[in-house]
């Protein structure tokens, strides 16, 4: 471990593979897992950010340039991790892109298929392929999977129909895999509400826009926009022995979006 990196130790001896781990939530989880003593494979499509993380964390991490929407990308990340660290205990499927909150009425007819394919290929196919390819390793280690879901896995208005459908699919995937893989592998999820990040957009829908709407915090029962680091403890919990009785669970950390109610100003103290 490089000088200046803390070692807290709750994941000592564990090997984690995290997708979409050079920015935002995935990066915050990767950094915390390193602090907790894990060896971490950081997977992303951004070469520049992969290089920057390698420079900072040295041999504690392995960086792999892979596109999770492809089977070969998933095979590459799993094979590289096992070759370098010898096993995988924790698989965090997290890489995701947004649909820019574009509603059905505004989705251009000539780009709707391409936009759907791009978002679903990363957000859903990426998680499924990752789970499939990592499965033999997790069966050996009796490890766990943690999927980044969203409040859009349960409710409307967390994106447009493409993103919301993709994140609802993740709730189903978590439940089905938890059912199929018990008792050897636990499969759980974290469903953040809003995060101060700028998620990527499908090429078919053009320019990048912030994934959170300005001023949205005013309508939240807990009225602030969390940083990525505000969610990482939930991933440590699900990866650790403390969660040994949990599978098929999705932790909703959504500033209270789900209990907002009809009248937004009520309930405050
Ligand atoms: N930002 C929010 O408000 C919010 C809310 C709830 C859930 N989420 C979820 O959090 C997760 C992380 O998003 P974020 O907000 O940190 O965004 P982010 O853009 O900062 O991070 C996503 C990462 O995934 C990588 N990525 C994108 N496509 C990829 C691919 N095909 N293969 C490999 N890597 C790829 C990106 O390069 C980026 O590093 C996503 O699953 C997202 O749906 C985000």
Can you describe what's shown?
- By secondary structure, the chain is of the alpha/beta class.
- It has a single domain, classed as NAD(P)-binding Rossmann-like Domain (Rossmann fold).
- The protein is 36% helix and 13% strand.
- The protein is built from 6 helices and 7 strands; from the N terminus they run βαβαβαβαβαβαβ.
- It has helices at 24-35, 47-57, 71-85, 112-141, 161-181, 232-239, and strands at residues 15-19, 39-44, 61-65, 90-93, 144-148, 186-192, 250-253.
- It has a 7-stranded parallel β-sheet, with helices on both faces.
- The radius of gyration is 18 Å and the shape is globular.
- The model has no long low-confidence stretch (mean pLDDT 94).
- Bound molecules: nicotinamide-adenine-dinucleotide.
Strand order of the largest sheet: 3-2-1-4-5-6-7
- Bin the helical content: 25-40%
- Based on CA atoms alone, the radius of gyration comes out at 18 Å
Bound molecule kinds, no repeats: nicotinamide-adenine-dinucleotide
CA-based shape: globular
The CATH class label is: Alpha Beta
CATH architecture: 3-Layer(aba) Sandwich
Category by helix and strand content: alpha/beta
> How many distinct folded domains?
1
What is the ordering of alpha helices and beta strands? EHEHEHEHEHEHE
> Could you describe the largest sheet, including whether it forms a barrel?
7 strands, parallel
Write down the CATH topology: Rossmann fold
Number of continuous helical runs = 6
CATH superfamily: NAD(P)-binding Rossmann-like Domain
* Percentage of β-strand residues: 5-15%
| N→C terminal distance | 46 Å
Instruction: Return residue spans where pLDDT drops below 50 for at least 5 consecutive residues.
Output: none
The tally of strands reads: 7
Mean pLDDT: 94
């Amino acid at each position: 471990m490089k000088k200046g990196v803390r070692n807290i130790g709750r994941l000592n001896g564990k090997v984690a593979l995290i997708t979409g781990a050079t920015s935002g939530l995935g990066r915050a989880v990767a950094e915390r897992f390193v602090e907790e003593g894990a060896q971490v494979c950081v997977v992303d499509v951004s070469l520049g950010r992969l290089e920057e993380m390698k420079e900072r964390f040295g041999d504690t991490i392995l960086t792999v340039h892979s596109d999770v929407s492809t089977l070969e990308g998933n095979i590459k990340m799993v094979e590289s991790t096992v070759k370098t660290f010898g096993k995988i205990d924790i698989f965090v499927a997290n890489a995701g892109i947004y649909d820019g909150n574009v509603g059905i009425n505004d989705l251009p007819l000539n780009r709707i298929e391409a936009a759907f394919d791009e978002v679903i290929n990363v957000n859903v196919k990426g998680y499924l392929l990752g789970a499939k390819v990592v499965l033999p390793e997790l069966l050996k280690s009796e490890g766990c999977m943690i999927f980044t879901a969203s409040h859009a896995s349960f409710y409307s208005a967390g994106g447009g129909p493409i993103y919301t459908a993709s994140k609802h699919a993740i709730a189903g995937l978590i439940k089905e895999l938890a059912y199929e893989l018990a008792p050897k592998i636990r499969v759980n999820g974290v469903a953040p509400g809003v995060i101060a990040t700028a998620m990527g957009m499908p090429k078919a829908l053009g320019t990048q826009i912030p994934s959170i709407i300005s001023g949205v915090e005013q309508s939240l029962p807990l009225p602030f926009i969390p940083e990525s680091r505000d969610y990482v403890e939930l991933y440590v919990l699900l990866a650790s022995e403390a969660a040994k009785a949990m599978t098929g669970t999705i932790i909703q950390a959504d500033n209270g979006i789900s209990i907002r109610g009809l009248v937004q100003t009520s309930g405050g103290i």
